[in-house]
Amino acid sequence: MGISVTATLRRIIEDPRTERVVMTLILINAVLLGLETSPTIRAHFGTFLTILDHAILAVFVAEIVARLIVHRLGFFRDPWSVFDFVVVGIALVPATENFSVLRALRVLRLLRLITAVPSLRRVVAGLLTALPGMGSIVLLISLIYYVFAVMATNMFGDDNPALFGTLGQSLFTLFTVMTLEGWVDGVTKPVMEHHPYAWIFFIVFIIVTTFMVLNLFIGVVVSAMQEEHEKAEEMEREAEREMMREETGPLAKEIQALKAEVMALRKDMTGR
Predict the structure, then answer these.
(1) 120-125: which pairs have CB atoms within 8 A and are 24 or more residues apart?
(2) Can you give the pLDDT at residue 253?
(3) Which of 20, 87, 204, 213 places its Cα 20 to 30 Å from the Cα of 93?
């Protein structure tokens, strides 16, 4: 009895139509969460939105339970399944003031759409593959950033204490310069009132950090995504070759059998 129930649940959760229904409900749930942020809509349709949200949540819980029954401990070996489990668990937290922030994280379940779109999966896989290389770049830019901050504090701190009075202020000011947001009027010109050649310092900092080091991030990510794309293409080619082997396997066996029969006939004819 238990085996038949598990088999039935497996057929249901592995059915592509079930996946499409769940994805549709995820989108609807995300829209509902957005509508709940409007006081006007909540005042007119609050009860309806709450009932619909609870109904969708019940489907999500049923889906998680079914997957737990089918996969058992294997369910927790899949990172996306664990992600679903955590998000649904958060959605079940009572709607009190202390847990309102946690319940707002229900919208994160929308990210599960990534698993349904192969191109998005490749993008995420590329980003994850790029993390080690990005860590090295973060270390490099942090070192450069710190060196420039110490230099700026020593050179400009006495005359511009609001911008470079302490190391922390220098780090924050140089971060705004690195983003290129108002760095001329907000930082460079005030400093140049006392240090006319300070523009050289800031231009060198921008070239090194914004135009050189930060662009390394793009290079690392693009390279990782290209590798993931090549891996995906290789997997597709391997799947096609496997399919061809499966299709041509019976034919090859028949040909071998015919060859064996022909050889046997030749032996019989030679023997006569």
Answers:
(1) 122/225, 122/228, 122/229, 122/232, 123/225, 125/228
(2) 66
(3) 20
Report the CATH number at residue 226.
1.10.287.70
The reported pLDDT for the residue numbered 164 is: 92
pTM check: above 0.70: no
Structure tokens given for 147: 């060196």
Closest CA to 146 of 172, 108, 184: 172
Which residues in the chain land under pLDDT 50? 1-2
Give the span between the Cα atoms of 61 and 89, in whole angstroms. Answer: 9
For residues 39 and 68, what is the distance between their CA atoms, to the nearest angstrom?
38
| DSSP code, position 157 | T
Range of the domain at 249: 121-253
| Cβ pair 224, 127 in contact under 8 A | yes
Q: Is 40 helix (H, G, I), strand (E, B) or coil?
A: helix
Check residue 205 and give its pLDDT. 92
- The reply to whether 109 and 231 lie within a common domain is no
Those residues whose C-beta lies under 8 Å from the C-beta of residue 133, and which sit 6 or more positions away, are 220, 223, 224
pLDDT of residue 146: 93
Give the C-alpha separation, 224 to 221, whole Å: 5
In the structure encoding, which two tokens stand for residue 117, read together? 């779109």
Q: Is residue 262 part of a domain?
A: no
What tens digit of pLDDT does each residue of 181-191 get? 888 888 999 99
Do 97 and 134 belong together in one domain?
A: no
Q: What are phi and psi of 142, to 5 degrees?
A: -65, -40
> What number of CA atoms fall less than 13 Å from residue 250's CA on the CB side?
3
Start-to-end Cα distance in the chain: 64
d(CA 104, CA 113): 18
